[in-house]
Amino acid sequence: MSETAVLPHKIIGVAVIWNDLGEILIDRRRSEGLMGGLWEFPGGKVEAGESIEECIKREISEELAIEIEVGEHLITIDHTYTHLRVTLIVHHCRYVSGVPQPIECEEIRWVSLDELESYTFPEANSQIIAVLQSP
Question: Which stretches make up the Nudix hydrolase domain (predicted)?
Fold first, then answer.
């Protein structure tokens, strides 16, 4: 039996949320728990019967209390950590309304594309940053 068969697998909808200034919203994971304290692009696990777009919209509303418009697909990443296999389905999103609240995270920040490199993200997120920064 292959090693990946025993790992739990989560399908995660991920939002790269842009504001009108060309900044991206990132959030810092709570310090307790897996990958605590690392920065990430917000999102969450797809529920049964839910499309990726619906998942992203719902998660962002629940976790950050803002309204977004889910746009085009950016990248899909399959990544295996020691404890978990994840499939990140990443979409460009546009910030629409509301004041972002750190409901499920430590803090949130709007950052420029160039500033992303100064934050520590989980390993799987490096591919998102690479594709965002590619010309």
Answer: 7-135
**What number of H helices and E strands is found in the chain?**
2, 7
Residue 41 assigned to a binding site:
yes
Residue-wise pLDDT for 9-22, tens only, equals 999 999 999 999 99
Q: Using one digit for the tens of pLDDT, what is the confidence trace for 78-127?
A: 999 888 899 999 999 999 999 999 999 999 999 999 999 999 999 889 99
* Alpha-carbon span 25 to 128, nearest angstrom: 13
43 assigned ligand-binding residue? yes
Half-sphere exposure of 118 (CA within 13 A, CB side): 6
- Domains, the chain, ordered by start: 3-133 (3.90.79.10)
Copy the structure tokens of residue 52: 């990726």
Q: Is 19 annotated as a binding residue?
A: no
- Is 94 annotated to bind a ligand? Reply is no
- 50 assigned to a ligand binding site: no
Q: Does residue 27 contact residue 108 with C-beta atoms inside 8 Å?
A: yes
pTM score over 0.70? yes
Q: Which two tokens stand for residue 77?
A: 């990443």
